[in-house]
């Protein structure tokens, strides 16, 4: 009997929870979140408001930039591209000028951390 009573209480609680989540009356919230969720539309969208721009307050440069944005749909304000020289080709069979170096040979920070790979240093540091 006790098991039947706990199953019934759980079922009623689950039914109330589902009803509360999917109710269509909008609930207590003013933004209508619950009603939109119940209608299957997901998150409510922010209300969009259009702003008007007073063109009389803009100077000549700002008006030109606005005209370009209106015409192209974007504005980057960067200079035109210029042709760059072609990259140099490496000749076949050319040997590297120097043998590869270890980073610790020129980087003090790397040299510091490479010391921790040395067991004698780690043993001395642990004492």
Explain how this protein is built.
The chain is mainly α and 127 residues long. 43% of the residues lie in helices and 0% in strands. It is built from five helices and no strands. It has helices at 2-22, 33-38, 60-72, 108-114, 119-126. The longest helix is centred in the first third of the chain and has 21 residues, at 2-22. The radius of gyration is 35 Å and the shape is flat. It starts with a helix and ends with a helix.
What's the topology here?
Layout: H1 2-22, H2 33-38, H3 60-72, H4 108-114, H5 119-126
Radius of gyration: 35 Å
What's the count of strands?
Answer: 0
User: What is the first-to-last residue Cα distance?
Assistant: 68 Å
The helix count comes to 5
Largest sheet: none
Shape: flat
- Fraction in beta strands: under 5%
User: Can you tell me the residue ranges where pLDDT is under 50 for at least 5 consecutive residues?
Assistant: none
Succession of helices and strands: HHHHH
Quick check: average pLDDT? 76
Structural class: mainly alpha
Classify the helix fraction into a percent range. 40-55%
Outline:
Helices cover 43% and strands 0% of the residues. With 127 residues, the protein is an all-alpha fold.
Which keywords apply here?
mainly alpha; 127 residues
